[in-house]
Amino acid sequence: GFCIRVFLALILCLLFLSLCLFLGNIDTPVINGNYLIIKGIVIISGNKRKLLDSMDNYDVIQYALSKYPSDDEVIRQAIIGLSKLGKCSEAISLYTKLDKKYPEESLAVAECYEKIGEELEALKIYSFFSDERYKILEEKLRKKVDKIIEEYDATGNAKILYNALSILPTYDAPALKLGWHFIRKNSEESIKFFEEAVKRSRSYHNLLMLANAYIKSGKYMEALKIIEEAEKMRRTAGSAFLRGLALENLNAKSEAEKDFLYACKEGIVEACEKVKPGVLYSPRDFYPEQWIGYVIYGYEVKQVLGTGGMGYVLLVERLGKKYAMKIMKKEYNFDEMLNEVAKMQEISKNSKYLVRILANFIDENWVDYYSSPPAIVMEYMGGGDLRDVLAKDEYSTLRHSVLWPQVVSVIFSKLANAIITIHKEGYIHCDIKPSNILFTSPLPNYGEEALEALEKEHVIPKLSDLGSAVKIGTPVIHYTPYYAHPLQRFGQRASTEMDIYSFTVSLYASLTNNFPFPEWLERELEEAVTNPSKREQALKDFYSVDPRMDYVPEEFKDIIMRGLRGEITMEEIARDLKDIAITEYNIPEEVLI
């Protein structure tokens, strides 16, 4: 009887295994293996991989967790399975116990958080693992808040706005709405909510709204600090008006009036009431100082740096950084510049010895010269120009130093490379002169220190005013007396000879603090500019008169003579200046590159 029972049991096992194979629950039967049946799912005992693959069943998940309670892989798969089955509380409970979290189970739990209404927890997970899902949920929550704000607008019930604050803590809209709700009722409450809005988003407009609330509650110093922070981003008529109100109440009335004047001119009518009517008068004679304190294209004008024949150079600030802005004079015909300034902006990137053009605002359809003049924004050079070095008493020791010719050789060797860069692009600078040779930092007052500063590039000379450049072959309509070649003064087409001449005169002036030709010749050339009948004789005199060379150092004489006579190229000048610096003055070659 016993044998029959054993035989029947074996037959039943074989039938069962055959059925499992037929149903697909056992991939490969294991002889003498131990099998588990969990809700109809057959798993060979100890086969963890098969167990993991079957964890889309709740009973299998429970068994797996009891069998492997500390196995991270099992726990992760359990979280994913429980999330899919809608067992969110269990999935979340397991997830919080994980030390290291990976995207798959994290995103599954985030969906669970959404299902149970804990969107902020979901948002937190999405911020780490899915930008796309984060944006989708964030937009959904913003719309939810916006709907509550619409309800407030319809009912005036501020209580619902308090609930909206907690829906999306990064969204400033409900805090702003509450700030405005209390602006006339309770200034302290108003400030509290505007401060909350700024905490959520430190934007320009939020800062100004907070400053306004401070002013209304009499906290003028706090308002001023906030406005100054906002104006580091940009200065507008609105910020100027608020700043004026704060300053006015801090007894800084003269400073306040400047802000009110700017705000008034920009259209803030309330500001106009606070300025003397006389200061609104615009004289027919324009002077650039009128721009001080004004904002042009987002740049606040701080100072007038200079005035030239073509325009004005202003010191401007934006986001706490200084720039130079060149504004063309109204009468200047800048049609050609309109086409060329973008190209000049590109060229200025190609040499470290060219002042960078960073932006241009030249529009042939400009209407109001005061508020939107044709302008070019350039890097600010804080070291002044070569003209100052040649003229100011503070640099007298440097100019009379035995090292001065070496200093000049380094400066002009570097600038020669910048001019070659311009010429290679098919343009002529047309206005090379000491006042257009700028320094990144002030040149030291003594020869040895100045030479060291240039060699180590603590001070870098750069050629400025690329806005004056024109294409080779284009008629030249502007010039600077003494530095311009006669043919340039007479409106001839631009050629490299013109820049070579101006460069050479600038080199001569730097070495001798004088000009190469006598004053009578300069007067004759200027008369010929307005009287074409005198040009032929003026040119004859120009080519027949020898420049004065007795104060020129011997090593520079050949370059200067050939440069003034147009018998040398810019490349040859650069090479010869480099040779002088290296062979005569023992200056390292790498300094001149």
TrEMBL record:
Keywords assigned by UniProt, alphabetized: ATP-binding, Kinase, Nucleotide-binding, Serine/threonine-protein kinase, Transferase
MF annotations from Gene Ontology: ATP binding; protein serine/threonine kinase activity
Domain Protein kinase: 299-582
Database matches in InterPro entries: Kinase-like_dom_sf (IPR011009), Prot_kinase_dom (IPR000719), Protein_kinase_ATP_BS (IPR017441), Ser/Thr_kinase_AS (IPR008271), TPR-like_helical_dom_sf (IPR011990)
GO cellular component terms listed in the entry, alphabetical order: cytoplasm
Highest rank taxon of the organism: Archaea
Name of the molecule in the record: Serine/threonine protein kinase
Naturally occurring in which organism (per UniProt): Acidianus hospitalis
